[in-house]
Amino acid sequence: MRIASKKNRKYLKILIVEDDVSTRKLEQMILEQAGYRTLEAENGAVALQLLEAEHADVILLDLLMPELSGMDFLRQVKSNPTSANIPVVLCTSVSDQEYVQEAVSLGINGYILKPIKGIDLLQKMQHVEKQIEPVLMDPIQTTNKLGLDSNGYQQILRVLIEDVRKRLRDVGARVEAGDFNGFHIFARDLSSSAANLGANALQRAALEACACIPNADKKVQERYFLKIRSEIDRLGEAVSGLG
């Protein structure tokens, strides 16, 4: 099976949840050499804290860990609306069918049995990528729709990115102060702007925020803020890659 190029996958951030240091570093090295970005957590409790401050596109999860097991972590992730849609791939030595079936029922997206083989890990990630909203639609299709050439399209995308980053700074300060109304208006406007320019993943994040923000508490709003900020960073990298 052919592995996709680094250029196609370098925008994804993978959270590695693994208590064994050497295994965690091995997974990190394999993924980063293939072009992915990574976050690390030594157990489920630390991983939950990380998800409060960072957005992850994929979670690579061990099951047998101290403090908070992989299964308990998975239950919490899948029961939280701000993280429930994050794809989860198990990477574990546990082969007991009862455990595996419970994980499947909770909505995992893949399963890798240790000991790790680099090709298996990368193939599984490539499979998961297909389930994630792409950063951009086909640029040629979008430029044809808009009546722009490639340079014009890249220019207007950069205008969007710069404007959103400025507004995120303002919105972030308001959310911190407990003013949620501004964030809802921002997310609604952003979903329309992103759709115009074929920024699929950013549009999806904004739409999810619009649907949940009106009734959400501060912590949930902060999670959606982080998700939108992460998608803006991915979009910026994608635009740079258009050259």
Helix content: 55-70%
Strand order of the largest sheet: 2-1-3-4-5
State the fourth-level CATH superfamily of the largest domain. Response regulator
* Largest sheet properties: 5 strands, parallel
Helix and strand string, N-terminal first?
HEHEHEHEHEHHHHHH
Structure description:
The chain is of the alpha/beta class and 243 residues long. It folds into 2 domains: 6-129, Response regulator (Rossmann fold); 139-242, Four Helix Bundle (Hemerythrin (Met), subunit A) (Up-down Bundle), CATH 1.20.120. The protein contains 11 helices and 5 strands; from the N terminus they run αβαβαβαβαβαααααα. It has helices at 6-9, 21-33, 44-53, 70-79, 97-106, 118-129, 139-146, 150-176, 181-196, 200-212, 218-242; strands at 13-17, 37-41, 58-61, 88-92, 110-113. It has a 5-stranded parallel beta sheet. Strand 1, helix 2 and strand 2 (37-41) form a beta-alpha-beta unit. Helix 8 runs antiparallel to helix 11. The two termini are 28 Å apart.
State the gist of this model.
By secondary structure, the chain is an alpha/beta fold.
List the helices and strands and how they pair.
Blueprint: H1 6-9, E1 13-17, H2 21-33, E2 37-41, H3 44-53, E3 58-61, H4 70-79, E4 88-92, H5 97-106, E5 110-113, H6 118-129, H7 139-146, H8 150-176, H9 181-196, H10 200-212, H11 218-242
Parallel strand pairs: 1-2, 1-3, 3-4, 4-5
Helix pairs in contact: 3-4, 8-9, 8-11, 9-10, 10-11
Q: What descriptive keywords fit this protein?
A:
243 residues, alpha/beta, Rossmann fold, Four Helix Bundle (Hemerythrin (Met), subunit A), 11 helices, 5 strands, 61% helix, disordered N terminus
